[in-house]
C-alpha cells in the first residue's frame, strides 16, 4: 500500500509513563468518519478499550469526557470493553486472542504501547496501535482503516512472535467491537442450495450467539458472514441505528456476539479457530483478514448505500467499470452439446443482442469425458469428440459473429473418475485412512500445497495464453471440504483450513497480476461463496442457482443490503412459469444474462427480449453505479418495489413486482420514491412493455421530485401486470 503521508498523532505513550509505570494521562484515540466516531482509550494501566461507537461529536475535545460519562465501575476485570481481549489473564469473557507461549504458558495481557495514523488518501486513513505483553515477547498491532465518506471501517490485527521458540495461536480474531445501547437486535442469514440469504431477526440475549462456518470452502452455504445489529429497536429502511458487519474471508469464519454482564454488546469476529490452532515460529507474524463494518443512524437503506458505494470504489474488482451481458448454455444444453449446437448458440447470442456467449460445464475430459457430473473434473483438455477443433475455434466463431466468448471452469475440484485423480491422489483433500465422502461426486484439491496452486493457476493461464481473446471466466466451486486432511502439510494439519484459503488467494492474486481486469464470476453451485476478500479478485458473483424470478426478488433484495447490484449476476432461465417479462425485469436489477433457448422463443417473447436488452443498455449505468432505494418490502407487501437513482438525480429506474398471487392483490396506492431531487421535474415512462400491451402510466404528465417522494406514483401492478418497470427522466 502506498501511503501519501505518515505521522505520529500523539507522543509515544511510553514516553508519557510516570515513575509508577502508569500513563501520566489517558490516551484517547478517536477514529472519525463523515458521520461517526469510534473512540478508543488507553487508561492509566495501559489497557486499551473501546469507549464509544456512535455519531461523532461536534467538539472533538469532548471525547475525553466519554469514559467518565459511561463509567466502568462494575467491570472489575477492566477488560469487558477491551479493544482486543486477551485470554488467560484477568479476562473472564470471550477472548479475541488466545496464545500458547513457547514455554507452554497460556496467559496474555496486552498493554498499549503507541499508535500512529497514516493518511492513505484524502478519504482513507490507517490507524495502527501497538500492544505488547509485559511478560512474554508477544506484540499485536491493531489496524483500523477508515473510509471517511462512506463511514466504513475495516479492522484487523498482526500478531508477532518475538519469543525464541514456536508459539501457537489458539484464537486470532480480526475485530473486537463494543457497542452500547438499551437493546440489540441481530439480523442474520441462513440458507442452503437454492435457498440462499434467508433472514432472521431476533433480540440478542445474554450469553454468546455465534455465527460461523466449518465448511472449509464455499463456506457460507449454510450461513453467510454478513449480519446487521440494530440498536434500541429493529432498524427500518430509513430509521434506526444499525451496524452492518462481515469478516472478509472466504473460508471458515466465526463471529461471536456476546451480551455482557453490563448489557453491552461485544462483537468478536475473525477466522474460525475451529480445528485451526496456528503455529508461529520465532520472529514470524500472522495477519488476520479485515473485518468490515458500517454504521448508520438513518436505517438500513443508508447503511447499504454506503456499503455499496464503498464496495464499488474500494473493493469489488472494477467496481466502477462495465459488465458484459451474456447468453449461457447451461440450462439449454447441460452437458449435451457439440460444435454444431454451439455454432447455433453463437448466432442466437448475436440475435439476442447481448455481448457474450458463455460456454458452461462439459467441454473437457477425454479418458473420462465430462458428459455428466460424475467424471472428468480436473482434466482441462477439450473433449475431442465434442469439440474436435478446440476452444480456439469457438472463440474465433464468437468473434466472427460479433460477440465475445467466455468459459466455465471449476479449477479447485476433481472427480475421482479423472486422470488428475489417478496421477495425483496426494493432491486431493481426503483422510488417508478413511472412506472418501463426496459432495456432487467430487473432491477438493489441496490448495495448501504450492504445486497444486501452480496447477490451478496454470488452468487459467493456459486458457488465456492459448486464447488471448477469451473475455470471461465463470469460476465455479461446487463442493465443501469433507475429511479435511492435506498430504502436503503432514503433521501440521491444524493449519490446513487457513493455509487452504491463503493458497486460494495466492492463486487469485497471481491471476490478477497477469490478468488485472478480465471479468470473472464467483460462482458456487448457487450462492454460498461471496465475501469481500474474494470480491477483490472477481467482478461479480452468482447469488443462487435458483433463478425463479419470484424467489430472486427475495434473494436479490437481501444480498443488496451488502453487495452492489453491479456484482449480482442475474440470469433469465426457464426455472419458472412466470412470464418472460417478469423474469427479464428481475434479472435487469443487476448484471443481466440469459440461459434460455432463444431459437424456441415465441415471436413476441423474442421481440420483447431483444427490446429489453436494448433498454437495459440504456439504463444499466443507473442500476450499476447509482444509489439503490428499497421502496416496498416483498416480505411485508403484495408488491415489491426497488429503485435506482443516478448520482446527478437526473435518471431513475423503478422496478415493481407482484409477489402475492391471491385474488385482487396489486398496488392499490402510489408508491413513494426516494433519493430524487425535489425541485426537478421528472417524466415517467413505462419501459419493457410486452408487445401488444399498453402503458399503465400517463406519459404526458411530469411530476416534481417533491411530489414523487411525498405522494409517489402507482405502477398499477396486478395479476395482469405482474411486473412493471418505470423510467424517470429529469426534464
Ligand atoms: C453449478 C453452477 C451452474 C452450472 C453448473 C455446472 O451448479 O451454479 O450455473 O455452472 O454448476 O455444472
SSE arrangement:
Elements: E1 5-7, E2 27-32, E3 36-42, E4 48-55, H1 66-70, E5 97-100, E6 110-119, E7 124-133, E8 138-147, E9 152-161, E10 167-179, E11 184-190, E12 198-203, E13 207-212, E14 227-231, E15 241-247, E16 253-259, E17 265-271, E18 278-280, E19 285-287, E20 291-296, H2 299-315, E21 326-328, H3 330-333, H4 339-352, E22 356-359, H5 390-400, E23 404-409, E24 413-414, H6 419-423, E25 443-444, H7 450-466, E26 472-475, H8 496-514, E27 520-522, E28 540-541, H9 549-559, E29 569-572, H10 580-587, E30 591-594, H11 603-625, E31 627-632, E32 639-645, E33 651-658, E34 681-687, E35 702-704, H12 705-710, E36 723-730
Parallel strand pairs: 21-22, 21-30, 22-23, 23-26, 26-27, 27-28, 29-30
Antiparallel strand pairs: 1-6, 2-3, 3-4, 5-10, 6-7, 7-8, 8-9, 9-19, 9-20, 10-17, 10-18, 11-12, 11-14, 13-16, 14-15, 15-20, 16-17, 24-25, 31-32, 32-33, 33-36, 34-35, 34-36
Helix pairs in contact: 7-8, 9-10, 10-11
The structure holds alpha-D-galactopyranose (GLA).
Alpha-D-galactopyranose binds next to loops.
Features:
alpha+beta; glycosidase; eleven-stranded antiparallel β-sheet; about 725 residues; 36 strands; eight-stranded parallel β-sheet; Glyco_hydro_36; disordered N terminus; Glyco_hydro_36_C; globular; TIM Barrel; binds alpha-D-galactopyranose
Amino acid at each position: 500500500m502506498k501511503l501519501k503521508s505518515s505521522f505520529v498523532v500523539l507522543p509515544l505513550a511510553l514516553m508519557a509513563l510516570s515513575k509508577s509505570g502508569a500513563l501520566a494521562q489517558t490516551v484517547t484515540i478517536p477514529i472519525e468518519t463523515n458521520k461517526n466516531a469510534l473512540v478508543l482509550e488507553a487508561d492509566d494501566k495501559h489497557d486499551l478499550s473501546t469507549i464509544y461507537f456512535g455519531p461523532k461529536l461536534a467538539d472533538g475535545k469532548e471525547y475525553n469526557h466519554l469514559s467518565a460519562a459511561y463509567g466502568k465501575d462494575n467491570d472489575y476485570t477492566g477488560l469487558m470493553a477491551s479493544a482486543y481481549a486477551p485470554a488467560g489473564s484477568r479476562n473472564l469473557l470471550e477472548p479475541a486472542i488466545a496464545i500458547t507461549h513457547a514455554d507452554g504458558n497460556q496467559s496474555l495481557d496486552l498493554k498499549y504501547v503507541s499508535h500512529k495514523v497514516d493518511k492513505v488518501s484524502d478519504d482513507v486513513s490507517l490507524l495502527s496501535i501497538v500492544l505488547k505483553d509485559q511478560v512474554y515477547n508477544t506484540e499485536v498491532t491493531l489496524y483500523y482503516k477508515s473510509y471517511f465518506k462512506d463511514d466504513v471501517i475495516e479492522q484487523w490485527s498482526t500478531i508477532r512472535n518475538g519469543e525464541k521458540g514456536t508459539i501457537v495461536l489458539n484464537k486470532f480474531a480480526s475485530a473486537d467491537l463494543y457497542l452500547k445501547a438499551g437493546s440489540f437486535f441481530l439480523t442474520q442469514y441462513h440458507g442452503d442450495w437454492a435457498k440462499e440469504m434467508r433472514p432472521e431477526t431476533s433480540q440478542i440475549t445474554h450469553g454468546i450467539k455465534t455465527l460461523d462456518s466449518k465448511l472449509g470452502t464455499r463456506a457460507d452455504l449454510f450461513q453467510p458472514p454478513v449480519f446487521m445489529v440494530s440498536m434500541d429497536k429493529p432498524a427500518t429502511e430509513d430509521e434506526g441505528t444499525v451496524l452492518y458487519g462481515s469478516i472478509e474471508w472466504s473460508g471458515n469464519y466465526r463471529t461471536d456476539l456476546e451480551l455482557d454482564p453490563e448489557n453491552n454488546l461485544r462483537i468478536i469476529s475473525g477466522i474460525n479457530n475451529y480445528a485451526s490452532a496456528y503455529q508461529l515460529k520465532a520472529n514470524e507474524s500472522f495477519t488476520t483478514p479485515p473485518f468490515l463494518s458500517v454504521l448508520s443512524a438513518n436505517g438500513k437503506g443508508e447503511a447499504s448505500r454506503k456499503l455499496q458505494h464503498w464496495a464499488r470504489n474500494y473493493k469489488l474488482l472494477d467496481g466502477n467499470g462495465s459488465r458484459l451481458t451474456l447468453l449461457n448454455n447451461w440450462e439449454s444444453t447441460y452437458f449435451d452439446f457439440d460444435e454444431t449446437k454451439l455454432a447455433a448458440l453463437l448466432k442466437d447470442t448475436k440475435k439476442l443482442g447481448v455481448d457474450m456467449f458463455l460456454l458452461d460445464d462439459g467441454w473437457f475430459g477425454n479418458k473420462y469425458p465430462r458428459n455428466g457430473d460424475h467424471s472428468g473434473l480436473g482434466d482441462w483438455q477439450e473433449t475431442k469428440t465434442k469439440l474436435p477443433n478446440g476452444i480456439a475455434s469457438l472463440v474465433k466463431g464468437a468473434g466472427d459473429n460479433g460477440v465475445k466468448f467466455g468459459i466455465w471452469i471449476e479449477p479447485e475440484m476433481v472427480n475421482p473418475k479423472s486422470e488428475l485423480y489417478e496421477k495425483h491422489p496426494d493432491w486431493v483433500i481426503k483422510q488417508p485412512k478413511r472412506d472418501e465422502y463426496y459432495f456432487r461426486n467430487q473432491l477438493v484439491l489441496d490448495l495448501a500445497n504450492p504445486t497444486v496452486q501452480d496447477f490451478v493457476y496454470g488452468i487459467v493461464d493456459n486458457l488465456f495464453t492459448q486464447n488471448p481473446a477469451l473475455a470471461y471466466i465463470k469460476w465455479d466451486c461446487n463442493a465443501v471440504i469433507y475429511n479435511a486432511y492435506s498430504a502436503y502439510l503432514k503433521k501440521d494439519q491444524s493449519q490446513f483450513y487457513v493455509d487452504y484459503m491463503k493458497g486460494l488467494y495466492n492463486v487469485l492474486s497471481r491471476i490478477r497480476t497477469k490478468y488485472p481486469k478480465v471479468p470473472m464470476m464467483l460462482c458456487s453451485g448457487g450462492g454460498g461463496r461471496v465475501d469481500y476478500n474474494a470480491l477483490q479478485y472477481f467482478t461479480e458473483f452468482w447469488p443462487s442457482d435458483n433463478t425463479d424470478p419470484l424467489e430472486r426478488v427475495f434473494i436479490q433484495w437481501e444480498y443488496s443490503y451488502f453487495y452492489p447490484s453491479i456484482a449480482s449476476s442475474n440470469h433469465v432461465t426457464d426455472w419458472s412459469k412466470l412470464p418472460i417479462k417478469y423474469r427479464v425485469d428481475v434479472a435487469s436489477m443487476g448484471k443481466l444474462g440469459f440461459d434460455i433457448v432463444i431459437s424456441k422463443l415465441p415471436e413476441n417473447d423474442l421481440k420483447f427480449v431483444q427490446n429489453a436488452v436494448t433498454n437495459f443498455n440504456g439504463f444499466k449505468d443507473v442500476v450499476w453505479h447509482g444509489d439503490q432505494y428499497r421502496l416496498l418490502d416483498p416480505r411485508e407487501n403484495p408488491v415489491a418495489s426497488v429503485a435506482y437513482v443516478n448520482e446527478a438525480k437526473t435518471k431513475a429506474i423503478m422496478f415493481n413486482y407482484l409477489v402475492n398471487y391471491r385474488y385482487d392483490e396489486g398496488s392499490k396506492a402510489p408508491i413513494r420514491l426516494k433519493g430524487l431531487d425535489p425541485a426537478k421535474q421528472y417524466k415517467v415512462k413505462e419501459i419493457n412493455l410486452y408487445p401488444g400491451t399498453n402503458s399503465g402510466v400517463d406519459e404526458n404528465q411530469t411530476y416534481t421530485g417533491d411530489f414523487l417522494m411525498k405522494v409517489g406514483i402507482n405502477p398499477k401492478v396486478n395479476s395482469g401486470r405482474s411486473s412493471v418497470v418505470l423510467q424517470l427522466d429529469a426534464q
